[in-house]
Write a structure and sequence with these properties.
With 509 residues, the chain is of the alpha+beta class. The chain folds into two domains: 20-99 and 147-317 and 366-494, Outer membrane efflux proteins (OEP) (Up-down Bundle); 101-145 and 320-353, Outer membrane efflux proteins (OEP). It is 63% helix and 10% strand. The strands form two sheets. The protein has a four-stranded antiparallel β-sheet with strand order 2-3-5-6. Helix 6 crosses helix 7. The protein is elongated and about 130 Å long.
């Protein structure tokens, strides 16, 4: 108990000496991060400052551009993030209003009759008549004076939560754009893989035509003919399996767009090449990454809110200063409500209250411990966000470089095997190569095309993921009006003038 009382005096003394809001002030945590990313970048990745605006446009696919524009307007998670901004904006206003007195006014009327026998009046006839009472409450005020700055800390927490919700909106925006781009690239990859199997079936068709001609000339084998027919049927079946995978991607994109699959399918069913970008990607340095990543920004704002919460909790150690006052005109005649000199009553009640039992029972101390643990947890989440951001970039750079190398290898393989197959087919047609060897060439050609499709799709997916890890893309679009107001209007330490004279909206906008 002695320790608890000592804690109360320490808090009071610190608050009195500092002359400002109680509790610790937020400071951006210092973390040891390198000047550059440690991963060795491939030739297609530069260490120059990242340019992350509208990165999807560099893939040069008008359908993808349209999908991104639609997901910005229609995505459900994005719209929910906007609602969260409005929610925290309203909470900020509620917290801000506590800095000012509650002032009420009103008019009341009553008619009464007193039972004279109960109050012992000797002449009860004088009180048998009822009487009216008009009461005009000109103003009554109740105000808790923020001596220790606890209310200001609460407002600071509200501002930080509001800013965190805006950062989370940016994070959702980056995420849904990356998700729709990844789903679109995957769709085109699956279409390319299906086309590779269809080309395999077409190759078997060409072989069937050649073998059937030999059989008619009685120089071919019906066994070989049956084998090729079987292989062709298998290739057609394998190609058909991709239809279901493609339908899954269409459904996923439709969910992101908040549309029915039918509308999306009309746009996506016609096959198109896998999007590709040969422009080098600039990744910048870790310091600028942390300033750009929405999740890091949100984590720091949440840490600031939790830090302000410590001051709010510490105020429970200290007395509260309140001021109550009223100015009332009371008269039995309505016409006399304006006669202030005769019918006026008023009262002024400054008060100090101190719930010392909160200290003796340990409730105040427990509240401070809770607030500090929340702040420590927020600090750990901030550190985790920083570490995750840097590692995601390095992982994405490595994956993108590996995918580029694999794509180039498959491009070479597909180009070479196509030429080799055409030559092998001529040799088979002339009778200088057996069917088994020709089938191996045909299958190798399809494997190379399928591998190229997968490598191209993976390269595009890793390209998208690299930009997602860089936290970019939200700069290309104007943020919602609510977020702009957060950035321009809201202050961690507001004054009465900010409340009574809010900033005027830009008429040009």
């Amino acid at each position: 108990m002695v320790r608890r009382i000592r804690n109360a005096w320490q808090v009071a003394l610190c608050a009195a000496i500092s002359g400002c809001a109680i509790g610790p002030d937020h400071q951006t945590p210092e973390m040891e991060i390198g000047e550059r990313f440690s991963v060795r970048p491939p030739s297609q990745v530069r260490t120059a400052e990242a340019k992350t605006e509208a990165w999807w446009v560099t893939l040069d696919d008008p359908i993808l551009n349209d999908l991104v524009a639609r997901v910005d307007l229609q995505n459900i998670d994005l719209r929910r993030a906007l609602l969260a901004i409005e929610t925290y904006r309203a909470q900020y206003t509620i917290d801000f209003s506590k800095l000012f007195p509650d002032i009420n006014t009103g008019l009341a009327y009553s008619r009464r009759r007193v039972d004279a026998n109960q109050i012992g009046v000797p002449n009860p006839d004088a009180l048998r008549q009822g009487f009216s009472n008009w009461q005009w409450n000109v103003a009554s005020a109740a105000w808790e004076i923020d001596v220790w700055g606890a209310l200001r800390r609460q407002v600071e927490a509200g501002v930080s939560n509001l800013q965190a919700s805006a950062a989370q909106y940016r994070g959702v925006l980056v995420g849904v754009r990356a998700e729709v781009a990844t789903a679109y690239v995957t769709l085109r990859q699956l279409q390319a893989q299906r086309e590779a199997l269809r080309q395999l079936a077409a190759g078997y068709d060409k072989l069937l035509f050649a073998i059937e001609a030999k059989v008619r000339a009685q120089v071919g084998s019906k066994t070989e003919l049956a084998e090729i027919r079987s292989r062709r049927a298998s290739a057609v079946g394998d190609a058909a399996r991709f239809d279901a995978l493609i339908a899954q991607q269409v459904a996923g994109i439709a969910i992101l767009l908040a549309e029915t699959p039918g509308r999306v399918r009309e746009i996506l069913e016609p096959a198109r090449p896998i999007p590709s970008c040969e422009t080098p990607v600039a990744i910048g340095v870790p310091a600028t990454l942390l300033a750009r990543r929405a999740d890091v920004d949100a984590a720091e704002r949440q840490l600031q809110a939790a830090t302000a919460g410590i001051g709010v909790a510490q105020a429970e150690y200290l007395p509260r200063f309140t001021f109550n006052g009223n100015f009332i005109i009371q008269t039995p005649d309505f016409a006399n409500l304006t006669d202030i000199s005769t019918n006026m009553t008023y009262g002024i009640t400054p008060a100090i209250t101190w719930n010392f039992m909160n200290i003796l029972t340990g409730r105040a101390e427990a509240g401070v411990i809770q607030a500090k643990m929340r702040a420590l947890d927020a600090l750990l989440r901030y550190q985790q966000a920083v570490i995750t951001a840097i590692n995601q970039v390095e992982r994405s750079v490595a994956a993108y470089g590996a995918a580029l190398a694999a794509r180039e290898s498959y491009r070479t393989a597909a180009r070479e095997i196509d030429s080799a197959y055409e030559l092998a087919f001529l040799q088979y047609d002339r009778g200088t190569m057996n069917l088994s060897t020709l089938i191996l060439y045909l299958q190798a050609a399809v494997v190379a095309r399928d591998g190229l499709a997968q490598a191209s799709g993976l390269t595009a997916q890793n390209y998208v993921e690299l930009y997602r890890s860089l936290g970019g893309g939200w700069e290309a679009s104007p943020m919602p009006e609510d977020w702009e107001r957060v950035r321009q209007e809201f202050k961690a330490h507001p004054t009465a003038n900010d409340f009574l004279n809010p900033p005027q909206e830009d008429s040009a906008g």
